[in-house]
Amino acid sequence: MYHGKFTAPHPDGSSHALDPFLQREIKLAKNIQSTLLNGEVPTFNGGEVSGSSLPARLIGGDYYDFYPLVNGKMRIVIGDVMGKGIPAAMLMILTRGAFRSASESTKGPGDTLRAMNQALFKDLRALGSFVTLFCADWDPKHYMLTYANAGHNMPLHISGSTGNIQTLSKVKGALVGGIPNLVYTEEQMHLDKGDMVFFYTDGIVEAQNTEQEQFKLERLIQILQENKDKSAEELQESVLSSIHTFTEGLPQKDDITMVTLKITSDNSDITSLNSPVI
Amino acid sequence: MLSYTTLEEDKLLRVDFKGDLDIEATELFQQELLKKMEEFQSVNLNLKEVPFVDSSGMGLLIELVRTLNEQEISVKISNVTEEVFEVFELLQLPEILGKDVFV
User: In this complex, is the C-beta atom of B70 within 8 Å of any C-beta atom belonging to chain A?
Assistant: First the structure.
């Protein structure tokens, strides 16, 4: 939480209040990003999705989005723009635009990443920046998750029947802005009733405590195991709270973002869409 | 915090890094190191004592190699730890920079 005046650290360690004009600009930028990130979440019978993002600074470079498709599938994306703060946030908005327009015209997650890389490559190359992205299509009719990866952390699958937690089968792909005209391969996985998929950015596993120890994947898995029976939103709150406890109030080093897909019953047709029908 | 020492051998500059490579290294890479490296024909980045590289560090590394290559300066990245190389492979760094960059 941010209270009082926005301040900027100086090299000498002191901090100076920003001028009111700049404060207002930053507040507006934060509102724009927060509104775009926290759009209406699609609801569907037989399951739920939830997403949350906590920037390390006033605004951040992490990104997640849901895009319901006309064929009844739902496209999920999570990503991390290199860097932090305002520069990363500007590129995050660019990434969001590329995702939404690619989703209109592409068949699957691999094709979406290919189109996004194609659209963003020149700009990212010119700016010396990169974006990691993980894109997945959830097919509620056939209970299939199809996914492709552009250099992002592999999400975790939490089995509802056994409680086992494993990373999804690896699928390789260079980060967006890395290789021009790259084709991204896809993998598929069948999900059962009670299963969950947890997508996240590296700000979670790389959160550090006062001993400079990282939160690491092992701790994340433990928290997910302890809270797997909660709703998608409550599960994410538990993850956030355990990171806060672990870091003992140290300033957050990187943006923290997560998306949870939870299958709760046998009927999971998507019933509410948050975007125009193509 | 990342620190480094350098060793100059004729037209080769070896840079031995120590510490985590993350966004904190931005100024070090883009202002201090790049200028120094541009004076040499080849550069060896020794990551033996770099236990962790995050996505921002990865971006800095890619941008540094690309910028030097554009000036026809040859770059090698050596002694990458197994854990860090796993992340490099996930991001397909060998494909982006060329497999011969890693020694």
Answer: no
